[in-house]
Amino acid sequence: MNHQLEKKKLTMKTIKLATALAALSIAPAFAHEQHGHESFSAGEPGDPKKPARTIEILMNEMDYAPARIEVKQGEQVRFVLRNVGKEDHEFLLATPKENLAHAEVMKKHPHMEHDEPNGVRLAPSKTAEILWRFTKAGTFEFSCLIPGHRDYGMVGHVNVN
Question: Minimal CA–CA distance to 131: which of 143, 114, 141, 117?
Answer without folding.
Answer: 117
